[in-house]
Design brief:
The chain is an alpha+beta fold. It is 37% helix and 28% strand. It contains 7 helices and 8 strands; from the N terminus they run E-H-E-E-H-E-E-H-E-E-H-E-H-H-H. The chain has a 4-stranded antiparallel sheet. A 4-stranded antiparallel sheet has the order 2-3-5-4, with helices on one face. A hairpin with a 2-residue loop joins strand 6 and strand 7. The longest helix has 25 residues. The chain is elongated.
């Protein structure tokens, strides 16, 4: 089932991260293109900054930028075509492999806030594993099932984590005093206590990340 995913990613070799770290007030947004060659390393960006001479000097030092071409710069807003350095870390390549695409990407703090359209959760798992292999820090903020208009965000939970948290909640695992032990909850899903503990712990971690990180970024 197709899904929409909002995520925050960080890595020192992601595009423009060195520039973001030096220029606190810079805001960079990918300009969405139609019929773009996914193998291309040249992309248009909308950039907000009050000193484009200073910005371009930083681009010259940014190891993720191979070349740049200003299209227009006026009143603190510029459009640039940027060619990435060949060693720049890009999540777009693995998205192409799983038949997904990025609908929005903008700089936040020292990373990127992205909106992805993916064919399903397996594609998200592939991207997640790729991110780990490449050393990305990735936080899943929201997941929407596109074919169910009445379905809310799952806040980065896998189906197994959501099921584990629901069963634990419904059986009083989080009550004070606790109404059912971890072993009892695990028995409900025919899992070991270790596996159940891991699902609950990872699920709670994802919920906290989804509930708090976006507020911090905004």
């Amino acid at each position: 089932m197709p899904i929409s995913v909002k995520a925050y990613i960080e890595h020192e070799r992601l595009a423009f991260v060195p520039t973001m770290r030096q220029l606190d007030d810079v805001k960079i947004k990918v300009i969405t293109q139609v019929n773009t060659d996914p193998s291309s390393e040249i992309f248009p960006f909308l950039i907000e900054y009050d000193d484009f001479q200073d910005l371009e000097a930083m681009f010259e030092r940014d190891p993720t930028v191979n070349n740049f071409e200003p299209v227009s710069t006026a009143d603190g807003t510029g459009i640039y075509y940027i060619e990435y350095d060949e060693d720049t870390k890009l999540i777009s390549r693995v998205m192409t492999e799983v038949n997904g695409f990025m609908t929005q990407a903008e700089s936040k703090d020292r990373g990127w806030l992205v909106q992805l359209q993916l064919p399903g959760r397996q594609a998200l798992n592939t991207i997640w594993e790729h991110a780990k292999d490449e050393g990305f820090s990735i936080d899943i903020i929201e997941i929407y099932d596109n074919q169910q208009s009445d379905t809310g965000p799952s806040y980065g939970l896998t189906e197994e984590q959501e099921q584990a948290l629901r069963v634990a909640y419904e059986n009083g695992y989080f009550s004070e005093p606790r109404e059912m032990s971890l072993g009892g909850i695990a028995d409900e899903l025919d899992l070991s206590s270790t596996a159940m503990s891991g699902r609950i712990r990872r699920g709670i971690t994802n919920l906290i990340s989804a509930a708090l990180i976006e507020d911090e970024l905004e």
